[in-house]
Description:
With about 260 residues, chain A is α+β, with helices and mostly antiparallel strands. The first copy, chain A, contains 7 helices and 13 strands.
Amino acid sequence: MITLSSDFGSPYPAAMKGVILQLSDARLVDVSHEFPRQDVRTSAFWLREVLPYFPPAVHLVVVDPGVGTDRNAIVVDTGDHQLVGPDNGVLLPVSRRLARMAGGNEDDLAIYEIPVDDPESATFHGRDVFAPAAAAVHETGLVDLDYPIVDGFVELAFPEPDTDGEDVRGEVIVVDGFGNAITNIPGGVLEAHWNEELSVNGEGAPVRRTYAAVEPDERLVTVGSHGNVELAVNQGRGDESFGVQVGSAVELRSPTERNG
Amino acid sequence: MITLSSDFGSPYPAAMKGVILQLSDARLVDVSHEFPRQDVRTSAFWLREVLPYFPPAVHLVVVDPGVGTDRNAIVVDTGDHQLVGPDNGVLLPVSRRLARMAGGNEDDLAIYEIPVDDPESATFHGRDVFAPAAAAVHETGLVDLDYPIVDGFVELAFPEPDTDGEDVRGEVIVVDGFGNAITNIPGGVLEAHWNEELSVNGEGAPVRRTYAAVEPDERLVTVGSHGNVELAVNQGRGDESFGVQVGSAVELRSPTERNG
Amino acid sequence: MITLSSDFGSPYPAAMKGVILQLSDARLVDVSHEFPRQDVRTSAFWLREVLPYFPPAVHLVVVDPGVGTDRNAIVVDTGDHQLVGPDNGVLLPVSRRLARMAGGNEDDLAIYEIPVDDPESATFHGRDVFAPAAAAVHETGLVDLDYPIVDGFVELAFPEPDTDGEDVRGEVIVVDGFGNAITNIPGGVLEAHWNEELSVNGEGAPVRRTYAAVEPDERLVTVGSHGNVELAVNQGRGDESFGVQVGSAVELRSPTERNG
């Protein structure tokens, strides 16, 4: 199985599929080709949330603002899964999660360099470099391909929240297409507060398990499918209602403290 | 074969696919993930129009404004097809049509409840409840799953037109992405009027078999691929030109009557 | 393998898939259903760029502003590939390229007419005419289908550039979703000018191999994945910056000449 992810929209992904289908009979599954254009960070977030639900597979990822520069093309091997894409950090958060899920150490990734004859020659590495590499990894396997280990690679990590004190401090790491502002704060911090109210950046908001637990257009604090605290509005946009965007600080405080 | 339909856009549907692919080798076919957000009625219309073209399959449908409330998760068995989704009516119109096509009685549907441990716990039932259920129905089959029959279910039916008199009265039941205003009036009422003119809500419009039979930007009354009367504009938006939206009354009257 | 291309958006393509899956177990691959609405020319361009990357297949193409008129439904046989769609020129540029790639003569295409009982009766030929025809071509093969050879067909060819003189003259043949203005000028004319500047319609612009070789929002002349000269802006829209659209003349002149 080979999954495909990109920020290409349409119809460019079809050329990648054609190239793969010339080389492999693998089942192809689209993850998304609608990642925000050249947004490595948001793409890395979504890959981390979605790819762990797949069975072992080769994952082709092309979100690549540095195409045509001398950035490396890489394969990350997490044991069960192999991820093929540019060396810009987009593969790292999901690879770490996959390695940990396979029982390994998340810092113990094997990262290989895909040989590219003339990295600065092409404008469509998705089709000409990454798609053939994904097919090769699927058909031949990394052992027999004998790609060299990389000397180094570009890191990408999401900021860690501060959950030690009575107040919890984190930040918005992505806003999804519904306008839900997804934070880096683990959902567990809401456990003691279901159906209560919390102060979010100084303003009260109800803590509810589901969007439908508040009236349409009313805001809420909840846990999204990704397991993180999310600032949302039932049938509306949480980012606008809470006045936050990617990178905005989010402070959660309980009413007890507020009155204390 | 498992088909997938939702209002999720991208990339959420990929997580459902990953979950299914962990449990089943079924062929997966996307119907649409662009149904209008939380619009049960329009989704129900499109499912009724599209799913009957498929061979026997399990159809996973997640358009679910009540996610996280205590609404049931259900499977409707029409004989040839099984439909998995929320108990909000979205599965009903297509299920009735499929049952009728299989030679059965459209009111004779078998509807089962999918056991859910804690229905109010999750925000992503598509991935955590419905996708595993669709895989289970496909792999194990409803007989062996032994799901309980539901006590009751949410009904959804499109309004019936009044075609008995000389005038025909119906309503717009959906507007498609082209702006075509699709009514509940069966296309057969146009049989005697091809290439004539009809009065639509008091204004004349040509009755033509195809959009291209009128000039660009000109309006027409026609029969859409769904078999119903449609108010359209060649290369334009019928809803705007005819001044209608979902729920608008539509009265068709022949010129003979008008003059009579 | 059957590929599917259309301007239908969603959910109409699913009905075509259902029809095919009733008749065939072929692997289905979406090329795009987001071609610009009823834009035969742009669709023809993208098909020519994308389909040649596929292994031998049946290609179903429905971009059909003349649906319901008496235009023919056709199959073009290029030897390795068969293309099914309306007789409006959309299949021609890619068919010529595929024939040439197979070692044949690009003017030596075999074009057959798909028998249609009542061409003016339907509004959804994609589902009712073309999808069954694609399945039949895939399952039965053109030889056994015994479709008649067409008497004639609608031509579509992209304009040829003038690359003989010192100045190069061509035109914009399509603008892609990124705003890149793709010309009919072969990329080879840039060979002697990499990292220099060229005059484009009288204004200087840097010639670079990749978007990232200029600053964000800066314009450049480059060669796109399609092999043609492209007027682009790094992370912006080339069409707006260069003031061009489809059909605009593009004259490339080297600084030497300008000063000579």
